[in-house]
Amino acid sequence: MDGKKKRYRPNVAAIVLSPTYPTNCEIFIASRNDVNDAWQFPQGGIDDGETTQEALFRELKEEIGTNDIEIITEYPEWVSYDFPEIIAKKMYPYDGQIQKYFLVRLNSKKNINLNNENPEFTEYKFVEYSEIFNFVTYFKRQVYKKVLDYFKREGYL
User: Fold this and answer.
1) What is the fold, at CATH topology level, of the domain defined by 8-153?
2) How many CB atoms lie within 10 A of CB 65?
3) Stretch 23-48: mean pLDDT, rounded?
4) Taking the chain, what is the end-to-end CA distance rounded to the nearest angstrom?
5) H-helix or E-strand containing 12?
């Protein structure tokens, strides 16, 4: 360790549940267009002066084409992860991200549109809770597990 303090980019992330929730609990994941076979939840940086909820609604609109959602709850603390080397270069000067997670319910699937101005995803799917870790990229698994386990323990999933 070189003693340098790590710099984390403030970020919001959304665990998006299908409109059939709570009857049927399917979770939205999308495949990144810049990292091969890297599935993840929608997420993005928080702009200066923006609240976490404002960032959540903006990022969902930018990334999946809709922010027609209902916030169910949020994870009670911020969680962080470090970027792998391949991504760290692109995200300089940040070493990782510190994130606020929201659990949200999509009101309708019909407005999902990945073909926006700067598309981040090539495809999406709704998967069962038990399938998530068959898809998500390796460096996000620990954070995803922590957050998803919490929501499951609290009775949301």
Assistant:
1) Nucleoside Triphosphate Pyrophosphohydrolase (3.90.79)
2) 15
3) 92
4) 38
5) strand 8-17
